[in-house]
Amino acid sequence: MGSIGPQEQDYDVLIVGAGLSGIYSLYNIRKQIPSWRVKVIEAAESVGGTWLWNCYPGARFDSETISYQFSWDKELLQEWNWKDTFSAQPDTLKYIERVCEKHNLYDGIQFNTRVKSAHWQDTDCTWLFIDENSFRYRTRFFVSCMGVLSCPTLPAIPGIKTFEGQAFHTSRWPKDFDMKRDFANKRIGVIGTGATGIQTITETSKEPSIQSLTVFQRTPNWSAPLRNTKITPGQMEKIKMEYDAIFRRCASTPTGFLHQPDPRKTHEVPPEERVELWEKCYAEPGFAKWLGVFSDTYTDREANKLYSDFMADKIRQRVHDPAVADSLIPKNHGFGTRRVPLESGYFEAFNQSNVHLVDLQKTPVETVTPKGILTSDGKEHELDILVYATGFDAITGAFNPIEWHGKDDRPLIGSSDTELGKRAVWLDHRPYTYLGLMIPSFPNMFTVLGPHQPFGNIPRSIENAVQVVTQLLEFCKQENYTFVEATAEAADKWTEHVVECSKGALSNEIDSWMTGVNTNVPGKRVRSVARYGGSAVEYRKRCQQCRAAGWEGFHFA
Ligand code: NAP
User: Fold this and answer.
1) What is the pTM of this model?
2) How far, in Å, from the CA of 195 to the mean position of ligand 1?
3) CA of residue 234 to ligand 1 center, whole Å
4) 382 and 253 within one domain
5) pLDDT, mean of residues 199-225
6) What is the mean pLDDT of residues 166-192?
7) Domain of residue 519, CATH code
């Protein structure tokens, strides 16, 4: 990119974020509306989003690689040879870079640019964005591609600034890290046991030169084997011939993954036959063990308990010390009611003499000290390196650091006990949207993978959202509309529908990033319905119905 001056830049569409959502938005809008000036701005130094930032050891898909890539470039599907059934982060990043090279996307992306504020301009129906260096970008339309898990959070623990060793969040892993060199003879601590922590811990435990690894676990998570394997050249050729069928299958499942739940209910099936299905799913690679089991597993408490007991036994069989096994088995939520991290030897790591589990439910952290972590039993766990695998201010989090001035100067997010909060559209971080694509009082602004959209298989969700947003933009162009906004009536109905869809799901009774809880973020301690919990098939149908009805629910001018 050429350098930019302090003068204002002018666009038809400004996209923020150059992860999978942003690069596909750039490609698709350019392709469908070639005369428009489209620009992406991105905080990082390169493309990739999640797959650029999260380069911690062990980072890899735990969604099947073959179903987790762009389906729109048939040529690239035939050209690209994946190495693993569950691709490792460096290979995924190479794939994303290849997409950008192949479609000349780099020339539309400005890197190292972080948005500071966004101001709706009523006089000429544009948005004015200002970045951290005070450069200004005026745009008719804005597409937010900022990601659902892009705003890392450090734990709200006293003393974290006092630690004298090296400390970092998993999504800010040091550049040019070399495990053998940088972890040799070190005492490493990891706080957090979500999907990221589980991958980091497992990979670190396998490095023979580390002195020790101490895992600080507040809530155990259910986890089960990933079973990654290499894809042979012969298998890759076969996969290439099956892509149409693979993506057709993804389009037919509730989550966009290849797995379809078994339609039977747990109690309709004799106990031996149940165990047979559970064992079969457990032995299979990937999410079969989460998404391929009986249809009532995540809505019927009893059914969930039976499956959770099966999974708890698997953990007991793998961990030698029964007390450690007991600490690793979740007690406050059933299997699959949080996003299930998949692992490649996580439980066995705790059988090593240099890997220690600190159960924070028994001995909570008191403070981080210059030397390590002090727990309530008076023990100071001395560490050289402290890794925060403590997750993200998810879903609404990426919007949080930006100062928003919507129509009538309305802020986007605010807490109800402040003056600002009383006017905020997402009061107390509770999303209010129409189809998860637009927000009343925020005209000409679209979100890809925003709140109230289905997440599931992320690229499948992204492709649909980008296509719908592009169609809306094309409609505006054809009709010469310079203004589009979701009506309050449509947003009320949609938000109600999203809440309705979440009812009955056991996952909505559990604190997790999916229910909008992050104890490290003020104002995010109460659950909300932040994602579309209905089926992805139903979501796409509703988008198509809206379009067929002349974009019902949107007001154009
Ligand atoms: P996460 O699931 O939110 O986990 C954060 C962890 O940090 C939890 O164990 C949490 O404990 C702990 N924690 C937070 N604050 C703490 C504190 N103050 N004291 C002690 N512990 C604290 O975040 P994540 O692991 O980064 O994963 C987020 C999502 O990213 C995943 O669910 C998944 O969707 C995605 N992801 C995907 C992949 C993949 O595809 N391969 C890999 C990694 C992540 P509590 O549970 O007690 O809050």
Assistant:
1) 0.96
2) 6
3) 37
4) yes
5) 98
6) 97
7) 3.50.50.60
